Each structure stands twice: as C-alpha cells, then as structure tokens.
Amino acid sequence: MEPEPILTTATSADVACNMCGFTTCEHLFTKKDFRLVRCTNCGLAYIANPPDAEGIKAIYTAKSSYHDQLLDSGSDEYQRQRKTAHQHMQMLRHFRPDPSGLLLLDIGCSSGIFLGEARSFGMVCMGAELSPETAAFARKHFSLPVHQGDWRDAGFADASFDIITLFDVIEHLPDPLGELKALHRLLKPGGLLLLSTPDIDGLFPRASYPLAKKLDYWPHPEPPHHLFQFSQKTLAAMVEKAGFTVEGARHTSIDLSYNFGTLDSWKQSPKMLAYAALFAPVAVLGQAIGKGDWLYLGATKP
C-alpha cells in the first residue's frame, strides 16, 4: 500500500497547478529540497517550489555539465543518444509511416542527433535549443539550421510545420501548457505533435514509491531539471486543453543504467545496488506489459 500523501495548500512562495490553476495539492516526495506534489483537482504532479527564471536558465549550459558529453561524438553518452534517436524515429513513423519530405521542428534538439536521424529518412529538419554549446555543435557537426534560444524569437511562420517534436522536453518547461498553446499555431492543420516524457504511472515508479521515503531514494523525479511529472492521463489532458486531438500513446522504458546505475556506481553506493536488484526487473516487466516508465504521445492539430 502506498503511504498516504499529505494534503497541503500552496504557500505564497509555491506555484499553482499549471493545468488547472488549483492550489490544493498532495505532497509526494522531497528531493534536493524541491517538493514534488500532485494537484488534487486534475492529478498533475509538479515541483511546488521551482527555481526562478535565472536559476532555470543557468541549468542548460555545458558549464553546468548539461549534455556536455553530447559534444563528443566518441563518448558513451553520445552513442546512447544515437540509439535513443533511432527509437524516437520509430515512434514518429508509428504515427507518420512515410515522413519523407515533411517539415520537422524539434524543440530542445540538443546536439542534433535526432534531427540527423530524421534527415536520413528524407525529412526537412529544423531545431531550436537553449544551450549555446549543443546548438553550436548541431549546426557545425550536422550542418543543421538550429535556432539557439527561445523558438519564439526564431521567426517561424504560422502553420508552417508538418511535425513538431518535444522529446523529454515538456517536463523541463516552467509553463508547459502555455508552450503547447503557443506551438499549436506553428503546426499545419492535420500536423503531428509528438512528445516523450517519463511516466509517473509506469510500473517501476508506482512500485518503488512506497519505499521512496524510507530509503530517501526515488530516481524517478529529477528536480530541478524536471519541473513536472506526467502520466498518460495528465499529458493527454494538457495536450487536449492546448487545442490538439490525441492520436495515441506508446510506452517503453528508460535505459536501465540511467535509473539504476552501473557497476562503477554500485561500488560507490551499495544502496543503489540493492535498489537496482529489487526494481530493475520491475522496470523490465513494466515495458513488457505496456506500463513502462517512458511515455510517447502523439496528437494532431484539427
């Protein structure tokens, strides 16, 4: 049985629910002094005391080690992201089987690995990325047109894109509902919005939550980078509130080493090793039964 969440009301320093504006929430978990709560009205889970705008901006640079390994095409992380890019493309083709010739905008494109994959399928690719270092890498290494900074400043025309992707981006945004509403205008009618995000309702997050407070260890929430924790239900509700029609969802699992560490990290933390032994099989099972902890959701602009 899950521990009973603590009912609380947002203080003047807390943010209200981004989806419904409600201020009453259930406390779920505290990590790095950031409080993860769940809205009692719509069910959206979010960080009640997020960093301010300057604090968030400072996270997304190589100086803070954000995606710094993706600036080296020989690094293990770069190779892992190549596999992830292939998975992203498989998911995209589930919704659009023949993407050749379609104009794609990837929001939060990082070092451009996915855009390089998409281009190999004949897509016309553009990106937007906050990090100056990874945006520059994408432009130089892949010769991609990538806008560095807020995509709103790029001058993209209304109804100009066939597909907009946000892979593991929506959970980072201070105002995800506002972002989705703004992106709505960039899609052509019938265009595809494709998102991925960790799924708080996946089998592994749900099964591990009862022990989270006892162990003071729950890898699923990742503040301050992740400001929101979505489920299929809450992500679909937000996407529809922004004016899209949900096409469908698919589930997979986050890379096991990302959640549970490696041999080197286990040597440094026996607690992590015990946790991995207990819950890694649960994560594998979750993917097998369609309850993985990584969610893809596709939606169409009517």
Automatic annotation (TrEMBL):
One of its GO terms (biological process) is methylation. Keywords: Methyltransferase, Transferase. This is Class I SAM-dependent methyltransferase. GO terms for molecular function: methyltransferase activity. It comes from Aurantiacibacter sediminis. It comes from the Bacteria.
